[in-house]
Design the sequence.
């Protein structure tokens, strides 16, 4: 592809051959990362003739259709390329970051992500909320989440300012 730019002399014309796509590096998110509804996509995009950067998402590991979530028209060096809102999407998605220059050269990076917009539901059965306890306490309850990896129990006394971790369990 040839890009033409006017030269200062009327007798000559400068022709710039642009055969390389933009330099694109996505540093976050990483493949198979668990994310919530809103995500900052970070990395670097550079090209002298950069036209735009598009971020899109498609359902599953190998989608045939992508929906554009964000489009920007500036280079980025080790920073936020865009912040995207997944607007109700959930589960396995492929995030596509595509940078294109003015003559059509492009660089694309696909990243598989797992979107979990819902926080875990925690129910404490005993001791009851607002209850006063002394000595050892048996804590009973449930934690529910489709993608639950682990849970942590922390506690503090009235005299303490911050919580102390009691136990962490993987599920």
Sequence:
């Amino acid at each position: 592809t040839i890009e033409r730019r006017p030269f200062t002399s009327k007798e000559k014309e400068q022709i710039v051959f642009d055969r390389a796509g933009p330099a694109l590096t996505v540093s976050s998110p990483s493949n198979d990362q668990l994310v919530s509804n809103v995500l900052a996509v970070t990395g670097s995009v550079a090209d002298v003739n950069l036209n735009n950067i598009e971020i899109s998402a498609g359902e599953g590991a190998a989608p045939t259709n992508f929906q554009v979530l964000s489009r920007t028209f500036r280079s980025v060096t080790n920073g936020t390329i865009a912040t995207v809102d997944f607007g109700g999407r959930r589960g396995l998605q492929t995030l596509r970051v595509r940078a294109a220059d003015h003559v059509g050269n492009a660089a694309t990076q696909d990243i598989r992500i797992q979107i979990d917009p819902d926080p875990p539901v925690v129910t404490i059965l005993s001791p009851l909320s607002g209850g006063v306890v002394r000595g050892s306490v048996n804590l009973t309850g449930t934690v529910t989440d489709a993608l639950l990896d682990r849970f942590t129990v922390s506690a503090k006394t009235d005299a303490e300012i911050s919580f102390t971790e009691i136990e962490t369990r993987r599920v």
